[in-house]
Amino acid sequence: MTSYSLNPNLIIVDGPADLMVNITELYTEPIDLDGRRSDFFGAVNILQKDPLVAIRGTGNSIFNGTIIQFVPVRNILNVPITVTGLREGLTGELEIKTGSIHLEAVNREAVDRFQAPPDFLKVDCSGILEPGNYILRVYADSQVETMDGISLRVAPEEVGIMIKAAGEKP
Fold this sequence. Notes:
Blueprint: E1 3-7, E2 13-14, H1 17-20, E3 40-45, E4 54-55, E5 60-66, E6 73-84, E7 90-94, E8 98-104, H2 108-113, E9 121-124, E10 132-137, E11 139-140, H3 142-146, E12 151-155, E13 158-165
Parallel strand pairs: 6-9
Antiparallel strand pairs: 1-5, 2-4, 3-5, 6-8, 7-13, 8-12, 9-11, 10-13
């Protein structure tokens, strides 16, 4: 919740003068913010802590709360990119050997505790049959995207790879 207002924001109270001089603020019943994802409003009772002090009017106020969702994000740099699916007799050399991961989740703890497992970022060479230069998509372990409501983006999205016959000199 980024801000709130009460309507009315001023009320009149009556009571003995010695009690009145010490009243600088009044309190409302607790307002539950759990699960709130958008602006909301509702009537809230003003708490009457001293029976000698009377609140004029209805004894409640309209509470307006402004909610702004902050999406926790985290960037993880220098994550190794693994070459998978390379046919026997071929070797591959990536132009870029590491990538980065941009994580987003509703839950800050899920973003903070995420650790990229080994071989998390990959390029799949199973469709390559002969030596040459190729551009392949970099992908992440798909099981992680559904874990803890995490969504992620990988950079670079594609990477160049030079495929050579095993034992071939550069």
